[in-house]
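Appendix B, example 12.
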Amino acid sequence: MIANIKTNHGLISVELDTTAAPETCANFKQYAEEGFYDNTIFHRVIPGFMIQGGGFDANMSQKPTRDNIRNEANNNLQNLTGTIAMARTPDPHSASSQFFINLSDNGFLDFKAETPDGWGYCVFGKTVDGMDAVNDIAKVPTGNNGHHADVPLTEVLIESVTIQE
């Protein structure tokens, strides 16, 4: 299954690993098919680390989400350059709609153990086309916006996310 993330910086195509992360992929697919991601932004950009989106509109208002999902980070997938993973709070099982794309190999985010500090962040796919767009987004200037740091100073819009079976 391919997720096509259309942004104002170009198209990012991500192959979702429905075998390794079935619940996470189903959750992402449902948000995409409901149009939840349309006109949201990449609200956190940290060069050399990751770009994060899928939860805020252009006014930096957080969108209401469905219930959180179980963390499937113990699936042997690693947070390598170009992979997509679920963002979450310190609670290991708090992911909902937000995701990030790794800009480098971030092994410190990988599953280590089923403990609060060891769960890691669930990788559920990898970029198969559009790393040029990902890297372009990583270059946008950022600053603080209220309580949020690393926010792009110019809007990085997710126009739509569509799923190809």
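The chain has a mean pLDDT of 97. The helical segments are 22-33, 131-138.
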